[in-house]
Amino acid sequence: xxxxxxxxxxxxxxxxxxxxxxxxxxxxxxxxxxxxxxxxxxxxxxxxxxxxxxxxxxxxxxxxxxxxxxxxxxxxxxxxxxxxxxxxxxxxxxxxxxxxxxxxxxxxxxxxxxxxxxxxxxxxxxxxxxxxxxxxxxxxxxxxxxxxxxxxxxxxxxxxxxxxxxxxxxxxxxxxxxxxxxxxxxxxx
Length: 189
Hints:
By secondary structure, the protein is α/β, with parallel strands linked by helices. The longest helix has 14 residues, at 15-28. It has helices at 15-28, 76-81, 102-105, 115-121, 131-138, 144-153, 160-170, 176-188; strands at residues 3-10, 32-39, 47-55, 68-73, 86-95, 125-129. It is built from 8 helices and 6 strands, in the order βαβββαβααβαααα. It starts with a strand and ends with a helix. The radius of gyration is 16 Å and the shape is globular. Helix 1 (15-28) runs parallel beside helix 6, helix 5 (131-138) runs antiparallel to helix 8 (176-188) and helix 6 (144-153) crosses helix 8 (176-188). 39% of the residues lie in helices and 24% in strands.
């Protein structure tokens, strides 16, 4: 049985490290893993989507609409934008931070309200938390990605020590302690 995880965010938020970490962890657990990065205008704060698929044998890295078991999102609007990819009974793990896209910044559009409620009304199981505050508690606003991984880890039957080991193996040495703390805050909150 193949499981599908979409990681969605805005350029520069660390979604690529999150997908690398997840892929590394799942490989060490003996799964066949396919990771596919779909870059938008990542350098300009545009949408960035990464697919992580794992199972006994995975043939394609692409996740179709209605197939994602999890959507992990760095921002509410990004989660809502990709909600049609979530399967029935799927879960959204989302940072409650609001990052205004360019049309909102320029005044051409208004940031939608009640996005969490709208996703829940569409049938999604939503696990929303303020990852930015937790990342700052860990020592860096840039650790939102690892706070999200900590939260996601609660839904996997993989020992916490394995997640921590994956962080040690994927993160530059000088940032390991900060990221371990961010992971723990995300998992515990």
